[in-house]
Write a structure and sequence with these properties.
Low-confidence stretches of chain B: none
Mean pLDDT of chain A: 92
Radius of gyration of chain B: 13 Å
Helix content of chain A: under 10%
Order of helices and strands of chain A: EEEEEEEEEEEE
Helix content of chain B: under 10%
Low-confidence stretches of chain A: none
Largest sheet of chain B: 7 strands, mixed
Number of strands of chain A: 12
Order of helices and strands of chain B: EEEEEEEEEEE
Structural class of chain A: mainly beta
Number of helices of chain B: 0
Mean pLDDT of chain B: 91
Distance between the termini of chain A: 41 Å
Number of helices of chain A: 0
Oligomer: heterodimer
Largest interface: A-B, 23 and 26 residues
Shape of chain B: globular
Number of strands of chain B: 11
Strand content of chain B: over 45%
Distance between the termini of chain B: 34 Å
Chain lengths: 115, 115
Amino acid sequence: AQKVTQAQTEISVVEKEDVTLDCVYETRDTTYYLFWYKQPPSGELVFLIRRNSFDEQNEISGRYSWNFQKSTSSFNFTITASQVVDSAVYFCALSSDNAGNMLTFGGGTRLMVKP
Amino acid sequence: DAGITQSPRHKVTETGTPVTLRCHQTENHRYMYWYRQDPGHGLRLIHYSYGVKDTDKGEVSDGYSVSRSKTEDFLLTLESATSSQTSVYFCAISSEGLAGAGEQYFGPGTRLTVT
């Protein structure tokens, strides 16, 4: 069975602070895929990134960066110099070749960025 | 933005009544999914489709049925709504199945309340 744990249910920071959202996953498969989605207060779900299990390179996109570490089964997401518009619920998700078409989501982390 | 619409966007219904939610896409993607979102659970897969008339169950399929008679439409039916089915329902599409690890794009959601 697959499992995604986002232990931080809620984080509050002040604008311009850096913040890291944690994601720990469990899977027995050697080939798997990790995702991050953002859900702003308006409610829609926005795809942010996908990583393959065989590619451990970290990725940076503007103020966003992702740290994938297979040794600790983690796929953490860092926002640098946070802004009020970053306030949202962020979901980490996992799928694998042997899980059929199941995308397993974590419970989400609510990030509040205060001015 | 991916062309995905959901209807209705909001619905209040009584226990025991049938309810059908519609997802419509203009992207001609093969794969379509229905999720429900509940506090503390993230998103959970209800059913998915990998082609016209090809559907399968997800993690929380009890009490739900689906149909896909055209590529662009995926219907979710609650045969006899219960209060435990009060939730926000999201439709998603993907050009690849999860075995191919394609990212999913989500519709705006339908808020369903069963009284």
